[in-house]
Design a protein that fits this description.
Structural class: alpha+beta
Strand order of the largest sheet: 4-3-2-1-5
Helix content: 55-70%
Mean pLDDT: 76
Distance between the termini: 145 Å
Strand content: 5-15%
Number of helices: 11
Number of strands: 8
Radius of gyration: 38 Å
Order of helices and strands: HHHHHHHHEEEEEEHEEHH
Length: about 375
């Protein structure tokens, strides 16, 4: 009974000291964050409080057991449990520290540059590096935990390292698709072909790149659906990237109108309409006839915009405005499809109908005289 009470007192006191140490560290980081407004690193490092306290607690309890000569044998379950907790907490702490450094680096970079394309590229690269580091740390933590819990596997581990070449070939063949996506993701992150925040058109779907992982890329479509595709797709098939080379875009609207459409008046009205729109950046505009058919002409209106969102809004507004204006002022300009002979009022008979009726009337009149 005394041994149990002594063990509980030692563990409770050790945990209390670690909680106090964690609280003091958090207060110190908070004070440093309040003094240094030029960086977010100290504030971001406060996220490491939970894994740090867990690591301190596991390590302190292990040291306390040895220092106070408690009943902890080498093959005891408690020793393995404390070691596992310490390894997991250390990996968790390293991941949180890497994330804090990455976010602080991104924030400092955003404050130094106004080029949104470079900021998106840097964000994409940091996100990919964080995922790679997280994966490596997780694998290392699992491997170390297995070796600690099962010491007999160390000899096997040495043999496996000796034959790493053969194992690497086998693993490469078995995980060819996964490794292909992994290298494709790294190529995308550092090749600047597509970045987080880019506006792309893939398989006819228009959306914004929301996330790039080690294996998949997520696109948020305009109607808030998510399109998830393997990153290897973007290295093997064509797609449209509206954000590459700058955010400016030229929106186009195609109208199919009658041959009698007054093109100069329509062009003048488009110019007047664009002058009152904030989503037109004022760089360029045009309205030309691009094609003609026996029944209609194709008119293209082109307007420059600052980004893809403005291009979409302006295209919809121009299309609606031009159709409404033609319907009010020049309704004959809208395309018509003749499906039957148009009906005419009684007092507007066609010439051949009037002649036929007159002939019939004269015939009846002649017959009546006889």
């Amino acid at each position: 009974m005394d041994d149990v009470l002594r063990s509980l007192l030692v563990i409770g006191g050790t945990l209390a000291l670690t909680l106090l140490a964690g609280w003091l560290i958090d207060r110190a980081l908070s004070s440093a964050d309040a003094r240094h407004h030029d960086t977010r690193l100290w504030g971001l490092m406060r996220r490491c409080s939970a894994p740090l306290q867990l690591l301190l607690a596991a390590s302190a309890v292990r040291v306390a057991y040895a220092a106070f000569d408690l009943s902890l044998r080498r093959d005891d379950i408690m020793e393995s449990l404390l070691a596992t907790i310490a390894i997991a907490a250390a990996a968790w702490l390293a991941i949180r520290l890497a994330g804090a450094v990455a976010e602080n680096s991104l924030a400092r970079y955003e404050s130094r540059t106004q080029d949104l394309a470079r900021v998106r590229q840097f964000r994409t690269q940091l996100t990919m590096l964080r995922r790679v580091v997280t994966t490596i740390l997780a694998i290392v933590a699992v491997a170390v935990t297995i070796l600690v819990l099962f010491p007999d596997l160390r000899t096997l581990g040495a043999s496996m390292l000796a034959s790493a070449g053969v194992i690497g070939v086998i693993a490469g063949v078995a995980a060819q698709s996964m490794l292909g996506n992994l290298f494709a993701g790294l190529q995308i992150a550092f090749g600047d072909s597509v970045k987080i925040g880019d506006t792309v058109v893939v398989d006819g779907e228009w959306g914004t790149v929301e996330e790039i992982s080690l294996a998949f890329l997520t696109i948020r479509i305009w109607d808030d659906r998510r399109l998830t595709m393997p990153v290897s797709y973007f290295n093997s098939k064509p797609y449209e990237n509206w954000s590459r080379g700058g955010n400016e875009l030229t929106g186009t609207v195609f109208l199919y109108l009658d041959h009698a459409t007054p093109i100069p008046e329509l062009r003048k009205h488009l110019q007047e309409f664009l002058l009152g729109r904030k989503d037109w950046d004022g760089r360029s505009w045009s309205l030309v006839v691009t094609d003609t058919t026996p029944s209609a002409i194709q008119v293209r209106a082109a307007m420059s915009t600052r980004n893809s969102d403005d291009a979409w809004n302006l295209r919809c507004a121009v299309r609606e405005e031009l159709i409404a204006w033609l319907g009010e002022t020049h309704p004959y300009a809208l395309p018509r499809v003749a499906t039957s002979q148009a009906a005419t009022p009684p007092d507007h008979r066609l010439p051949h109908q009037h002649t036929a009726q007159t002939t019939t009337t004269n015939h009846h009149t002649t017959t009546h005289v006889h």
